[in-house]
Design brief:
By secondary structure, the protein is an all-alpha fold. The chain has 5 helices and no strands.
Length: 141
């Protein structure tokens, strides 16, 4: 894992910022995001609406925790968990042969595929580097 403090700050801000942006885009179009969730054919309509209401706020708050450095381990842990879920979901979607929009960034979203898996894996690595950053002493998150 990376231990360079400047690189870890860059990782925090980059991943946290992406999750803040992604969450805001979804909050602004909950029905569109609910349809994206539904397109994956994993949950029904009711759960897709519930996910469309809860998931964006989880992304926003976890991104804020991570990017700000306040409760950065909690933010990195939540984001790591979300990324593991997203990677599994995209992989399952590809295996099932579904052609869906990832739903990641609203109108800027693209098809779920190998490129998205790679991007999510890179973000997961960055978040895990922050999550497992050595502690410096009491009160450091």
């Amino acid at each position: 894992m990376i231990r360079n403090r400047a690189v870890l700050v860059l990782f925090r801000v980059a991943v946290g910022g992406l999750f803040i942006y992604s969450g805001i885009v979804k909050v602004l179009d909950p029905l569109g995001f609910a349809q994206n969730v539904r397109d994956y054919r994993v949950v029904g309509q009711a759960l897709s609406f519930l996910a469309a209401v809860i998931l964006p706020w989880l992304e926003i708050f976890a991104g804020l925790f991570l990017a700000s450095g306040l409760m950065k381990r909690a933010g990195a842990g939540i984001i790591s968990g979300l990324l593991v879920f997203f990677i599994a979901l995209v992989a399952a979607t590809m295996i099932r042969g579904l052609d869906v929009d990832c739903g990641c960034f609203g109108a800027l979203s693209r098809r779920a595929g190998p490129g998205l898996l790679l991007e999510d894996a890179v973000m997961l690595y960055m978040a895990l580097c922050v999550l497992f950053e050595p502690r410096k002493g009491p009160g450091n998150d």
